[in-house]
Design a protein that fits this description.
- This protein has 196 residues and is of the alpha/beta class.
- It folds into two domains: 111 residues, 3-Layer(aba) Sandwich (Rossmann fold); 68 residues.
- It contains nine helices and five strands, in the order βαβααααββαααβα.
- Strands 2-3-1-4-5 form a five-stranded parallel sheet, sandwiched between helices.
Length: 196
């Protein structure tokens, strides 16, 4: 079983690529955001540790769950809180992912295990995966997608692009590049070629 990391900038169509893989390849797909969300529910050590950070006020809602928008608001306003959350969540996510990879390896049921995370490179997954794949789409295509799918303004998109890793940097850190600027069929053809 091959363990492959999937990354790319906002609007590049990582979700589309993951759907194509799920539909056409014998694989498991895991998203960093979903693992993190699960680990930050009551009953997990990560939840308890995050809640105990020095927040300006409680980040729990009436049901005892973390109020994600409130937490995000506090994190954007404070470097130390953002760093504190990341220092707890990233290692917990990594442990959970490696645990799931091990379970799938032992089952011998699938050929590929794909793990998607925006910060795959920053979090050092290059050392853990067999290959890193960069999902690329041209800035024009990404801009059009973000305006249509998320209603983002051109200004918001440009500001987001500025703070994200550059195309060159993604290419330097990844083993394979999938150009997802065209049709789904064109992307699927590239995926099949890569996996054969």
């Amino acid at each position: 079983m091959k363990f492959i990391g999937i990354t790319g900038g906002i609007g590049a169509g990582k979700s589309t690529v993951l759907s194509l893989l799920k539909e056409n390849i014998n694989c498991k797909v895991l998203l960093a955001d979903e693992v993190a969300a699960e680990l930050m529910t009551p009953g997990h050590k990560c939840f308890d540790e995050v809640v105990q950070l020095p927040w300006p006020s409680s980040i729990l809602d009436a049901d005892g769950q973390i109020d994600r928008p409130l937490m995000a608001k506090y994190m954007y306003a404070s470097d130390s809180l953002r760093e504190g959350v990341n220092a707890l969540v990233h290692p917990a996510v990594e442990n959970e992912v490696l645990n799931q990879v091990e379970i799938e390896k032992n089952k011998h049921n699938i050929e590929y295990f794909f793990f998607e995370a925006a910060l795959l490179i920053e979090c050092g997954y290059g050392k853990l995966v067999d290959e890193m794949w960069y999902i690329y789409a041209s800035p024009q295509v990404r801009t059009k997608r973000l305006m249509e799918s998320r209603g983002y303004t051109e200004e918001r998109i440009q500001n987001t692009f500025k703070v994200q890793r550059t195309d060159e940097s993604f290419r330097e850190n990844c083993d394979r590049i999938i150009d997802n600027s065209g049709s789904k069929e064109q992307t699927l053809l590239q995926l099949r070629t890569l996996l054969n």
